[in-house]
Design goal:
heterodimer, A: alpha/beta, Rossmann fold, 7-stranded parallel beta sheet, 9 helices, globular, B: alpha+beta, Uridine Diphospho-n-acetylenolpyruvylglucosamine Reductase, domain 3, Alpha-Beta Plaits, 3 domains, 8-stranded antiparallel beta sheet, 5-stranded antiparallel beta sheet, 12 helices, 24% helix, binds flavin-adenine dinucleotide, binds NADP nicotinamide-adenine-dinucleotide phosphate
């Protein structure tokens, strides 16, 4: 199913570098934007830049994925602010410190709550709005880390894995309403989230990932691994039998 | 803000000197608050300065501060963050019929780096340096204060920052005026000259008629040192508004041969002779006219690991050609691979700004201990004539010579201390020249 043309997209977690690369990619195709983020006023220069370079409308919206009560009214608030919109791109995510998230309940809880609860509750609410209108779609960034639990980041991985399942279900539910849902599983991307972390390899540029995502969206893809080779890396990782996998240090 | 974990060896465009440096990438203005920044620091742009101006043990890179903030399509007033490159500005403005009011010989520097050096172009005699086209700067001081500076508000900081080589504060945004064009091409007139006297004379005679002028000199010709090609230009009108191509070629594997002496001599002769007629007129795109070297990616690598030096000085017209001849006698002309001569007009510049009315000669040398000593020695010719050396290209001038050349150092330091009382801003250049 190829998604219909978008006039306005809502980007959630817009302070992320991947989000900004996506914003430029979409704006270069003439798509107007609403940038949702915590401390959204800090995005003023980003909004100015998008307007000037691409001549599109850009609005800023305060958004916190952990403010669960606010999600029910989000669709309407975006409409009040910017008029009709069709696409949601959710980039929200947080990578907890793997060691600290063992000892600190707070660290683990925030990661689980943000990456899974916050994002899925929010997208669930927005989905209702899209379903009613029978148009538009959802792009959500999860992670290759959600494909198999590993000792180095299973808290994050569990939340992203849960989100994968949630999106799968949502896609299944919304297909009859002509609303398309695309799951994006990035590998390592060069952003503040990962910069300086040990053991990174095959690190992609945010711009390349953004181009890939928007291209795949136009083709109507369901699940995108980006860059493409992560599909095969994860294919192998998922295939390793558990008795062996549990002894590996990945 | 995320510091890159590793300490990276970094160098300017000349690949000399090399300084180990921790790079912090600035993304937001708030990253510049004192609690976030390291105790000793310096803004770093695209490292298109040749020497040590952009180098320090800990730097704040503007690579990601590259947003356009405001544009008035009526007046051409543009405000951008400091990390935006001239290349990006051209991509933005050329299709709309605007051009950079002043541009150096490469489109890769950041606008912040261009402010810090108060850059000049081939049109200095008609339009002055960058400062003449800038309305205001937004500077975050070393103490974390965000100040809007222009000719009336914080004017001391404004004038100290042009040519201040990053030592007065972090330029966050620049608001400047673009120049109207109706064609992306340049009408170019090239004249072949017989010697330095004729080259100079021609540059002076054509000043009012042509907005742009520059001369390429053949210093390797034994009999006719200073003969060359004078390239005069003005914007064409009524043609297409085409952008420059995005791609550049890489240098060939044996590129190093190009700067070996026999080939240089031959190359110079061929380049000089390539033009058969004494005067030739063409219309060309702005890219090959202003940025001939940008077509070759990483051309600075042809000099190999030891790197190279560019040495650019200006001497007053009065001291003139004799002074240039004396300087050339002092140096080993054969070590010089490129020589470019321009004139500077009577325009304002920053406190440590480089341009002043006179002749300005830029020379490239392979870097060896001998060339460094030779240039340090020959600098006394420049100081004696009341001239000065361009800090954005320099790696060799001594503190003593520097103090002689730049008469407003005291004034500059007083302002630096006012806005940076704890002396947090420092660079390899400021340590070398006693500006820390
Ligand atoms: C091929 C070539 C041709 C050139 N031709 C010319 C020419 O014709 N005319 C001319 O004038 N110059 C010329 N230059 C020099 C170049 O324009 C300047 O060195 C310019 O400063 C480079 O900018 P950058 O962004 O690379 O800065 P960098 O080299 O990274 O830094 C240069 C200086 O600017 C400071 N700086 C950078 N960003 C900021 C900021 N945001 N706030 C405060 N300080 C900052 C740094 O601290 C440093 O002192 C040429 C350079 C090359 C490589
Ligand atoms: N970088 C990688 O290698 C990589 C790999 C796989 C997947 N991903 C995923 O890709 C997405 C983008 O990541 P990134 O690399 O660009 O990292 P990032 O810069 O850390 O971006 C994550 C964004 O999520 C926002 N966010 C976190 N909690 C939030 C909350 N409660 N409410 C609203 N926004 C919140 C952050 O906002 P603030 O700025 O306000 O903190 C931040 O802008 C994430 O979902 C990440 O999990 C990244």
């Amino acid at each position: 199913m190829k998604p219909s043309k978008t006039s306005r997209a809502l980007i959630l977690g817009a302070r992320s570098e991947i989000a900004q690369a996506l914003a430029h990619q979409l704006a270069s195709e003439g798509v107007g934007l609403v940038l949702g983020a915590r401390r959204c006023q800090s995005l003023q220069p980003v909004a100015d830049d998008l307007r000037l370079r691409h001549q599109v409308d850009v609005d800023l919206l305060e958004f916190d994925a952990l403010d669960l009560d606010a999600h029910a009214s989000l669709a309407d608030r975006v409409r009040d602010l910017a008029g009709p919109w069709e696409l949601v791109v959710c980039v929200v995510g947080t990578l907890p410190d793997p060691v600290r998230s063992r000892s600190s309940s707070q660290e683990a809880a925030v990661a689980l709550m943000t990456n899974f609860t916050g994002v899925s509750v929010c997208l669930g609410q927005l989905a209702n709005d899209l379903e009613k209108r029978q148009e538009g779609g959802i792009i959500c960034l999860t992670s290759v880390a959600g494909d198999r639990g590993r000792q180095s980041n299973y808290v994050y991985g569990a939340a992203k894995g849960g989100l994968n399942v949630f999106l799968q279900g949502l896609r299944n539910r919304l297909v009859s309403a002509k609303v398309h849902v695309m799951t994006v599983k990035p590998g390592f991307v060069d952003t503040p989230m990962t910069r300086g972390m040990p053991g990174l390899f095959l690190v992609a540029a945010p711009e390349a990932v953004a181009r890939d995502i928007v291209g795949a969206w136009h083709k109507g893809r369901n699940v995108l691994y980006t860059p493409w080779f992560w599909r095969w890396i994860l294919f192998i990782i998922r295939w390793i039998p558990e008795p062996i996998f549990k002894r590996m240090s990945l | 803000m995320n510091p890159q974990k590793d300490v990276l060896p970094t160098s300017g465009w000349g690949r000399y000197p090399v300084v180990d440096s921790v790079v912090h990438r600035v993304r937001w203005q708030s990253d510049l608050s004192t609690s976030q920044t390291p105790p000793a620091t310096l803004a770093q742009g695209r490292l298109r300065s040749y020497g040590d101006a952009g180098l320090a043990s800990s730097v704040l890179s503007t690579l990601e501060l590259n947003r356009f903030l405001a544009f008035d399509a009526e007046t051409g007033l543009l405000e951008t963050e400091a990390g935006v490159t001239l290349d990006e500005i051209l991509q933005f403005c050329v299709p709309k019929g605007w051009f950079l009011p002043v541009t150096p010989g490469t489109k890769h520097p950041s606008i912040g780096g261009c402010v810090a050096a108060d850059v000049h172009g081939k049109n200095h005699h008609s339009d002055g340096s960058l400062v003449s086209h800038v309305d205001s700067l937004t500077i975050v001081t070393a103490e974390g204060d965000v100040l809007r500076c222009d000719r009336s508000e914080h004017s001391d900081l404004f004038w100290a920052s042009f040519g201040g080589m990053g030592l007065t504060g972090f330029v966050y945004a620049v608001c400047f005026r673009l120049m109207r064009i109706s064609d992306s091409r340049i009408e170019v007139e090239t004249h072949r000259t017989a010697d330095l006297a004729e080259t100079c004379q021609l540059l002076l005679l054509t000043q009012t008629e042509f907005r742009y002028s520059v001369a390429w000199l053949d210093l390797l010709s034994r009999r006719r040192r200073g003969r060359g090609l004078v390239m005069l230009g003005r914007h064409a009108s009524g043609g297409p508004l085409d952008l420059h191509p995005a791609k550049a070629r890489s240098i060939p594997a044996l590129g190093g041969l190009l700067v070996s002496r026999p080939l240089l001599r031959m190359g110079n002769r061929l380049y000089y002779r390539r033009q058969l007629r004494r005067t030739q007129t063409t219309v060309m795109h702005y890219d090959p006219y202003f940025y001939p070297l940008d077509g070759l990616r990483d051309w600075n690598r042809v000099y190999g690991r030891s790197g190279f030096l560019q040495y650019q000085f200006v001497v007053p017209f009065e001291a003139g050609r004799e002074c240039m001849e004396e300087f050339l006698d002092r140096i080993d002309g054969a070590a010089c691979s490129l020589a470019v001569l321009k004139t500077f007009g009577e325009f304002p510049t920053g406190m440590l700004g480089f341009p002043r009315p006179g002749w300005t000669l830029a020379l490239d040398f392979r870097r060896t201990t001998q060339t460094i000593e030779m240039l340090q020695h020959a600098t006394s010719v420049i100081t004696a004539a009341g001239g000065r050396v361009y800090l954005a290209k320099d790696a060799v001038v001594t503190a003593e010579h520097f103090m002689e050349m730049y008469s407003r150092v005291e004034e500059f330091l007083a302002i630096k201390h006012r806005y940076d009382p704890r002396s947090r801003l420092r660079s390899a250049l400021s340590d070398r020249l006693g500006l820390t």
